[in-house]
Amino acid sequence: MKQFAGFRLDTANECLWHEGRQIALPPRPFMVLRYLVEHAGRLISHDELLDALWPETYVQPQVLRTYMLDLRKVLADDAAEPRFIQTLPKRGYCFVAVVSECGDGDHGAAGGPGREGLRRIVGRDEELGHLRADMELAADGHRRVVFVTGEVGIGKTALVDVLCHELGAGSNVARGQCVAGFGEKEDYYPVMEALGRLCASEDGAMACAVLERMAPAWLTALGRANVTVSVTNATRMPGDLCGALEKIAETRSLVLVFEDLHWADEPTLTLIAALARRRAPAKLMVVATCGRGDTAEHPLRGVKQNLLMRQLCREVALGPLTKTAVRELLSRELEQEAPPQGLTGFVHQHSEGNPLFAIAIVEHLIARRFLVRDEAEGARQWRPAGAFDEMEAEVPERVAQMIELEIEGLSADEQRILGAGSTMGIAFPVWAVAAALEEDAAGIEEACAALARRLHFVERGGQDELPDGTRSEFYVFVHGLYREVLYRRQAATRRAGWHARIAARMGAMFRGREWAVAREMAMHHEAAGECDGAVGALRSAARHARENSAHGEAAQLLRDALELAERMSGTDRGARVREIREEMRRPGLVEKAAVKVSAG
């Protein structure tokens, strides 16, 4: 087994481990990663990689870029400042991390006792272990600040709920919710909500007495009638409240929970930073949930980075659930020992491991009668109404509404940019968006960079080198459902125009080498209603493949072209079909086609 940084490459089980969590990789990306790791420290050319992994098979070099994008996402690697995979333009790749051998049995898995709260979440043993360890330190008088980060729906609140449930009566828990827009209107909004709950708790009388003595302005702001000193015009000083909270946490643990801190006001963030940096012993723990992509403009980013650098806080980052965890989640939701065959893979693929999306997909399948319940061996069991691989992947209504609300909060220009990006798929290069919108690439690049800094569902993916030697940034939708909603909300005529302009731009960029992007061009031509253009792109690629003795690839391209040509309308249809069939009769292609039929 190979080890690098916090990762272990398990070649026996063809998976990756990260700090005790198993990461399932599709076969092809795993093959690429394994080859790079096994040849770490030296340049691996594109040709070497293709020849090593796909011998005697013609594969378009563009495929490698897709796999590298997948691997960088898994490894949290930045192409601009790589820690693992370095891209060497026009040459290939180099695995730059230090690789060592390790034993096969130890994955660093975090165990832990089974507790009541574990039944409420799945796949979060390691993260919950970190929170428990911090709570134990806080109970010993070592104050702790923890940021629980992750995308919308990943389970941040559920994880914190489990922690609070486990604490029970042994600790005081006070929660405050940050609300979008309130940070600009009301200072300390989540702090005041938490203080209000604290004062209404079992220890409320003690908390009020401490606040009255040490931070009376804060108690006055809560509207508490038992304040005897007039402090109506007094300012709420963060230092006063810090001292009061430390006093409250002298004998009994106090946990302050602030949710959605990315919407917090700056004074609240300043207070959290002050609590983290004070030295007095206190049985105090602050837990804050926030999006992983807190923007460069938001003060939260600076506060969190500063505390992390000084080792005054911990970040518990929640990633997607593994397929095994999704299976456990589905068993729990459907209340049966094992989900129907095929359901786990379907849900894991389309939810991408997001628990909120996974549950929404199951609810959608039930509502659409794709999942039905009947009697089986004396028990009511869920079963599919058909094969999952034949079902159309629809966006669940609940998720679609949530995404629509986020999109509606953007400006018209921002919606147009993201809509144009959605025509390319999960990853969208700046040049393609500029081509679709017929706008200047520099302006689009600036707008995309600003969106990636502000939005949690768009992130920078890296750079592409274009055929003319220039470079173009590309961005990624972190979840396919966002891309799907953005694409479907566009008018059909607008989408067709965008696809047509992208195909034209692609053809101009790769003039003379159209075969390299033939399938992508064909997809855009077909989506634009230009079947003849799609057929032409596939036939051009087939000719190039045949010239390079890749007869199997050429035969498949011509089969795809024939299928498109048969759907054409107009006088050209018959001619195109005859031409393609004639090409398919050429020596080499006939044999390949016969082998495929025989194998089937």
Query: Helical segment tally?
Result: 25
- Total individual domains: 4
Mean pLDDT, all residues: 84
Structural class: alpha+beta
Distance between the termini: 37 Å
How many whole angstroms does the radius of gyration measure? 28 Å
Query: How many strands in all?
Result: 18
Give a quick account of the main beta sheet: strands, pairing sense, barrel closure.
Answer: 5 strands, antiparallel
State the low-pLDDT regions, or none: 104-119, 227-233, 593-600
Q: State the name of the first-level CATH class of the largest domain.
A: Alpha Beta
Shape: elongated
Instruction: Give the name of the CATH superfamily of the largest domain.
Output: P-loop containing nucleotide triphosphate hydrolases
| CATH architecture tag of the largest domain | 3-Layer(aba) Sandwich
Largest sheet strand order = 4-3-2-1-8
What's a quick, concise take on this entry?
The chain is α+β, with helices and mostly antiparallel strands and 600 residues long. It is built from 25 helices and 18 strands. Helix 10 (266-277) runs parallel beside helix 11 (299-309) and helix 17 packs across helix 20 (492-509).
Name some characteristics of this structure.
Rossmann fold, Arc Repressor Mutant, subunit A, 5-stranded parallel sheet, 15% strand, 600 residues, 5-stranded antiparallel sheet, elongated, 49% helix, disordered C terminus, alpha+beta
Structural account:
This protein is of the alpha+beta class and 600 residues long. A 5-stranded antiparallel beta sheet has the order 4-3-2-1-8, with helices on one face. A 5-stranded parallel beta sheet has the order 10-11-12-9-13, with helices on both faces. The longest helix has 18 residues, at 492-509. The model is unreliable at 104-119, 227-233 and 593-600 (pLDDT under 50).
